[in-house]
Amino acid sequence: RNIYLATCRSWNHLIERCPQLQLSPVTVEDRRDWYSLPWATFPKSLCDDVDAMVAEAVSPDPLSQTSRKSIKPVSAETRRRQLKSFASALVHRGRRPDTVTCIADLIEIETAKEGLRFLLERSGQKPTPHVHQMAKLLCTLARH
Predict the structure, then answer these.
(1) What is the CB neighbour count within 10 angstroms for residue 139?
(2) Rounded to an integer, what distance in angstroms lies between the CA atom of residue 112 and that of residue 138?
(3) pTM for this structure?
(4) pLDDT tens digits, one per residue of 17-64
(5) Higher pLDDT, 83 or 65
(6) At what angle do helices 73-92 and 129-143 cross, to 10 degrees?
(7) Three-state DSSP class for 13?
(8) Rounded distance, CA 21 to CA 14, Å?
(9) Distance (Å, rounded) from C-alpha 26 to C-alpha 64?
(10) Quick one: the chain helix, strand, coil %, rounded to 5?
(11) d(Cα 83, Cα 103) in Å, to the nearest integer?
(12) Cα 86–81–126 angle (5° rounding)?
């Protein structure tokens, strides 16, 4: 499968680089099992809260008593993606999207456990780096 995918990528790259060859691109089926829902699924208040958290993490107020060391924009985007993923996990576990209105809703202990259970079920009950990173993010957010 990996060799096939690499070959398809190379073929499509060749087509981009040499349009004069008039070759047809290869379409590869995406077999990934996505569970993350679009932001539009959730209340605007959650999106606004996540945006504010990301902005504060990238450019903290140096005069604030609660200010922390800044993080790189790419790390902030990872956090944004992780929170959307976690909110989506809760929806897949039966929670209505309109009840997830802010980050505080995500880090309630029972809510965090429920979302982490979803991730563990997806991984065959094995703790994966993804599950660990998600738990670590939830703990970080709860602490702050």
Answers:
(1) 12
(2) 7
(3) 0.75
(4) 999 999 999 988 777 668 999 999 999 999 999 999 999 888 887 777
(5) 83
(6) 100
(7) helix
(8) 9
(9) 53
(10) 65, 0, 35
(11) 8
(12) 50
Distance CA 44, CA 22 (A): 46
- State both tokens at 109: 């202990």
Give the span between the Cα atoms of 86 and 51, in whole angstroms: 15
DSSP string, 128-140: -HHHHHHHHHHHH
CA geometry: angle 35, 37, 86, nearest 5 deg:
70
User: What span, in angstroms and rounded, lies between the C-alpha atoms of 69 and 9?
Assistant: 39
Q: Which two tokens stand for residue 132?
A: 């660990």
Residues 47, 38: Cα–Cα separation, whole Å: 11
